[in-house]
Amino acid sequence: MRRRIDVFPMLVAATTALMLSACGTTPLATQGAVTQQAAPVAVQKTPRPVRIGLALGGGAARGFAHIGVIKALESQGIFADVIVGTSAGSVVGAMYAAGNNGFALQKMALEMDEATISDWSLPLFSKSSGVLKGDALQAYVNRMVSHVPIEKLKKPFGAVATDLSTGQAVLFQRGNTGTAVRASSAVPAVFQPVRINDRQYVDGGLVAPVPVRFARDMGADLVIAVNISQQPETQSGSSTIDILLQTVTIMGQSINQFELKQADIVIRPELPSMKGSDFAGRNLAILAGEKAAMLAMPELRQKIRLLQER
C-alpha cells in the first residue's frame, strides 16, 4: 500500500519562504534610497571688492587726455574709487572727484576758454616770480566743483604739490579745492608760488610727475597711472612757456620712471606733437586718451579679476 504524502504543508512552507524572501529585499531597497547622497553643489565665490586708484600726471594742455581715459574706463564699467592728481592731472581729477563723469568733463573742456584760467601778472617778469598769478585757475576750479572743499568731494581726492622750502612732495586732502589745485599746477616761473599756511608751494611735477605712490597711500588696491609727459627729444620748445614746461618735464623724467614701476597699469596717450601750451588741441588729446585706455583694457580687466579672486 502506497504511503500517502500530504503536500499541503509543503506548499505552505514554500509560500512562507517566498514571502519572507520578498520582505527581506524591501528594507535593503529602502535603505539604499535613504543613504544615497546628492551630488555636491558648487558654491560661487563672491568677487572680492577692488579699490581702484587713478593717478593723473602733469603735462599742461596735454592733460585733456585724462578726460578721454576717464570716458573709456567708464564705458567699460570701471570707476575710480580714489583720485590723485599732479598739475594738469589735479585739475581734471578735482572735477572728476566732484561727481562729473567723462562726458561732463569733456563738455567742460570744450567750453573752457583759455582766458578764464590765465591772469597775467604785469609787468611781465618784473618783481613777480611768475607770469601767471593763478587766481583765475583757482576761481575756475572752485566754480567747477561748486566751491566744495576737498574733504567733501564725492570721491576721495588728493592734489600733489612741492614745498618750495624743503623740496618735499605734499598731498593736499583737505581745504580749498581750487587753492590746492593751483598749488599743484604752479609751474615755476610760469605761475607764481602759492602760499598756504605760511608755506609756499609749486608744481607737484617736480617731485611726483605721476603720483602713483600717493594713490597707494590713499588705499588703492590697483593703481591706474596716466602718463601724459612727453619725451624731451620729441619737443622743440620755441616760446618761453614751452621751454619752462619742457624744463619741468626733463627734471621729472628719472622720478617718473621709478614712480611708474609701482603702478599696476600705465596708460600713455600718444601725443608726440602736442605741446603743453597747445589748448587748441584738446579734442585730439581727449581722443588719444580714449584710444590709449581701450588698448590697455584687456590687461586691466585681467588684473582686476586676479585681485577679485584672491
UniProtKB/TrEMBL annotation:
Taxonomic superkingdom: Bacteria
One GO BP: lipid catabolic process
Domain PNPLA as annotated: residue spans: 54-216
GO molecular-function terms, A-Z: hydrolase activity
Signal peptide from the UniProt entry: 1-29
Pfam families in the cross-refs: Patatin
Keywords on record: Hydrolase, Lipid degradation, Lipid metabolism, Signal
TM helices/strands, residue ranges: none
Motif (DGA/G): 203-205
Gene3D superfamilies: Cytosolic phospholipase A2 catalytic domain
InterPro entries: Acyl_Trfase/lysoPLipase, NTE, PNPLA_dom
Catalytic residues of the enzyme: 87, 203
Extent of motif GXSXG: 85-89
PANTHER family documented for this protein: NEUROPATHY TARGET ESTERASE/SWISS CHEESE D.MELANOGASTER, NTE FAMILY PROTEIN RSSA
Name of the protein in question: Patatin-like phospholipase family protein
Species per Swiss-Prot/TrEMBL record: Undibacterium oligocarboniphilum
